[in-house]
Design a protein that fits this description.
The complex is a heterodimer of chains A (about 190) and B (about 200). Chain A has about 190 residues and is mainly alpha-helical. Chain A folds into 2 domains: about 1-35, no CATH class; about 40-100 and about 135-185. In chain A, about 65% of the residues lie in helices and about 0% in strands. Chain A contains 7 helices and no strands. The radius of gyration of chain A is 26 Å and the shape is flat. Chain B is mainly alpha-helical and about 200 residues long. Chain B has 9 helices and no strands. Chain B has helices at about 5-10, 20-35, 40-70, 70-85, 95-105, 110-120, 125-135, 135-180, 190-199. The chains are: A mainly alpha (about 190), B mainly alpha (about 200). The interface of A and B includes residues 79, 82, 90 and 94 of A.
């Protein structure tokens, strides 16, 4: 456990570090917590904004009621979020089907040294990366199934985002018909 | 079937290269015939249910293939255990087991021989399947969890359609009652009295 003196020193040192100062540094640091972008709002991609607007109008109908419009926007956004997660799932499976894995194969230190040495001697060798995945089946449906098997952990993670988007949509739908009901009762 | 305007607004369901859009459309048409969605919200739920069911089917196919593709190594492991004589190690029978497991898929004689070996130990081909399942446990467990999650979401979405429809019906009933009771609508006698007051 740290002593009082150590804690005080840590605090003093921490005060000296105020994070990145340059524009580039700040920009880089702003993406520190970025992982996959699935929690980003769908309207952050300009192409989706138009689709979102159309869907909101279709859900809300001809109303200017701000709350109804907001509920409709929540529903539409959750719907597009769901579509985005589904696209990500399919893209991961397709990638695994094409390359056999998601992460590029890595060379060991020894292999890298051999590669550099061979290059220095004017030779080009193609080292076999360590932990290369087993060959993918060439026939369907085995190939797709193997691709799904290889990305199962990622699919499981994406499932969490999908469930969250679905839950958001349900809440918003309930909010929408609750709103319509209360307006009708006015 | 020609898609309605509402559906073109909804994002398209992404499919794998190996999946066909026609089959997906057929599945969606079947759900639409069954649920008969009215309005964009119900369309949205039907679209969701269809996408979930499609994914369930995809994962179920995958489950079968995972078990099938583990068959060869399962049979090989089983044969290594069964072919071993007292004092022999698995390594001693490795080649024989590998060859027999390989031939089992194409050669009727090899298949018969494997059945005979299995029956010596009161086993049958289900022992191979059991071993294949055992070897794929980690993947199958993950797949099952995903399938359960999808099935629960499908049921929830079906429940949502019913709930939304019931709520809408209730709302329409209340609106109809109000119209019948005359609340919020101008009655003819009211209009007449208003006209006379104005005069």
């Amino acid at each position: 456990m740290a002593s009082e003196r150590q804690i005080a020193a840590n605090r003093r040192n921490a005060r000296k570090s105020t994070g990145p100062r340059s524009g580039a540094g700040r920009k880089r640091a702003s993406r520190n917590a970025y992982r996959h972008g699935l929690t980003l709002s769908i309207i952050s991609t300009a192409a989706s904004a138009k689709q979102l607007h159309k869907l909101v109008r279709k859900i809300a109908g001809n109303t200017d009621d701000a709350i109804t419009l907001e509920r409709a926007r929540e529903i539409a956004q959750a719907e597009l979020d769901l579509a985005r997660v589904r696209r990500a799932k399919v893209a991961l499976i397709e990638r695994a089907s094409a390359f056999g894995e998601l992460d590029p194969p890595r060379l060991t230190v020894t292999q890298m040294i051999r590669l550099v040495n061979a290059f220095d001697r004017g030779r080009l060798i193609v080292p076999k990366p360590s932990g290369s995945p087993a060959a993918m089946p060439s026939q369907e449906p085995d190939r797709s199934a193997e691709a799904v098997r290889r990305v199962l952990p990622e699919l499981r993670n994406l499932d969490r985002y999908e469930r969250r988007a679905a839950a958001q949509r349900e809440r918003a739908v309930r909010g929408l018909y609750g709103r319509r009901k209360s307006r009708d009762n006015l | 079937m020609r898609r309605t305007n509402k559906l073109t607004l909804l994002p398209k369901s992404p499919l794998l290269i190996t999946e066909t859009a026609d089959e997906f459309e057929a599945l969606r048409d079947a759900f639409e015939r069954e649920i008969k969605p009215r309005g964009i919200i119900e369309q949205m739920y039907v679209h969701d249910i269809c996408s979930i069911v499609w994914e369930i089917l995809r994962l179920r196919r995958c489950k079968v293939v995972i078990i099938n593709s583990a068959f060869r190594s399962a049979l090989e492991d089983l044969l290594k255990q069964l072919l071993r004589q007292p004092g022999q190690s698995a390594y001693d029978v490795r080649d024989e087991a590998q060859d027999l497991a390989h031939a089992w898929f194409t050669d009727k004689g090899a298949k018969k021989l494997v059945s005979e070996i299995l029956s010596q130990f009161n086993l049958d081909e289900s022992a191979i399947e059991a071993e294949a399942i055992r070897k794929s446990f980690a993947d199958l467990e993950l797949l099952d969890r995903m399938l359960s999650s999808l099935e629960s979401r499908r049921d929830k979405a079906l429940g949502c359609v019913a709930e939304y429809r019931a709520s809408l019906a209730h709302q329409l009933r209340e609106s109809a009652d109000r119209v019948i009771d005359g609340k919020g609508v101008l009655r003819l006698e009211d209009a007449a009295s208003e006209r006379s007051t104005a005069a």
